[in-house]
Amino acid sequence: MKIKGISRRKFITAASAGVAGAYATLHAGVVRAMMGSGGMGGGGMGGGGMGGTTTIIDPPPGASFFDIPNAVKNSAGVYELLVKEAKLRLNGTPVTLLTYNGMYPGPTIRASKGEMLKVRMVNMLPKTTSTNILGHPRNITNIHTHGLHVTPSGMGDNMMMTAAPGASLDYEYDLALEEPGHLNFYHPHVHGTVAEQYWGGLAGPLVIDDAAGGALSGYETHVMLIKDITISNGLPEPYTSTSQFMMGKEGNLVMVNGLVNPVLSIRPGQVQRWQIVNACNARFLKLSLDRHSLWLVGTDGGLLDKPYKLPTILLAPGERIDVLVKADQGGGNFKLLSLPYARGGGSLQQVTLLTLAYGGTSAGDSLPSSVNPAAARLNMNLSLLPRRQITLSMMMGRGYINGISFADMTRAYTITSSLGTYEVWEIFNQSGMDHPFHQHVNSCQVLSVSGGDPDYASLYTTKPAWKDVVIIPKMGSATILVPVKDYDGMTMFHCHIVEHEDIGMMGVWNIGM
């Protein structure tokens, strides 16, 4: 049953019968992480955090790098995502995870600018009346296409639609206004259960393919979805207290495409393109590739004008980057690290994510001088624009936006905007930890950042980058320029430490004609 004409102002539980399609199984071959303690490891604290011991997580090189398989359309041209429990082996251990199509991570959905992307989600989770510790049913789900510039109404990126076990939802995303080469991902977004379902395995990449003959289309490309988890008794470690929601979960296994420290081969002189998604619940990643630069060519909202050379780059939960890596060291093995960063929750860690191994015949690749010439920073008179102030805070097991903790679409801090305008949002953080602020539908440009990582602030306040996740530093602030363009409807903004979203750090954005 396909559902049309959904009201913007109420939650819908859509029911339909039937399950179609087959599912793939997880690619095995993960190695066990080896954990120890040590010094800073050259990483630096980052974020102006407090002192403390840094844990070094440096597993040995593991299985060969694994490219997540692409989702396959059915005979009707629809991608089918079956949400189900699946028994897999993760890091050598049997585990039951929540999956899309029996895979961890979920399959890569690929589409092109101008396409009508169709996705059928079937909820095959067990029928149960069980609730989580926040009191929400565990088995209700839906899909958020994180990053897509599409309508939040009807059968688009509509968070008001949900599906109970045995039901399905048929999504349609008009990609007429999408950008080629745009990296996104998909995950559940039912308030109160996002963290648990996301932690349990539900996330997958969503890529808008490059334009034919685009500047990056000739490079060997790898999508990397970075996700962490802790396994307990063959299951994702459960949430047992509200303090875990306040802090946000960080797992003791940190994986790239479901593997611990996979080995990625590169030819001497070759340039590879890495499209990286931080799909962790709460873990910040400060990425650094030993003795190599990261050449940034794309951010949350799409491709940049040219490559920008960076020694490190900070990636909060929900953020994405598109980078080029040139094998210019002659030979050897080199570690992609997540350096210590003090987000204000969790422990300081340095994690080996991936090993880059030189091999094969030499290549003579060069970096492009231009990527997306149309990319530019907006230049307008900000004094004429509407200005909003948004304050993030936490206390007593709850998250708040402007003093209101989200309960449902009618009990939430609400912004009402007029379609076809621009607004300036000043976002203040009154808590002791960083919050990655995510707004649906429209990407923004960052005007200023107070506090936090100075390199992060410098990068995003000067480059022609579009963002749908912006780090608001602890006891700091950020000001963003928000287009209110193209699509009306009711959507959301929230902290993308998804536990914080579940305990109320979310607001409603009502975009009207």
From TrEMBL:
A GO MF term: iron-sulfur cluster binding
Domain Plastocyanin-like: 87-211, 230-338, 394-510
Protein name: Multicopper oxidase
InterPro entries cross-referenced by the UniProt entry: Cu-oxidase-like_N, Cu-oxidase_2nd, Cu-oxidase_C, Cu-oxidase_fam, Cu_oxidase_Cu_BS, Cupredoxin, TAT_signal
Lineage: Bacteria, Pseudomonadati, Thermodesulfobacteriota, Desulfuromonadia, Geobacterales
Keyword Membrane included in the entry's annotation: no
Alphabetized UniProt keyword annotations: Iron, Iron-sulfur, Metal-binding, Oxidoreductase
A Pfam match: Cu-oxidase_3
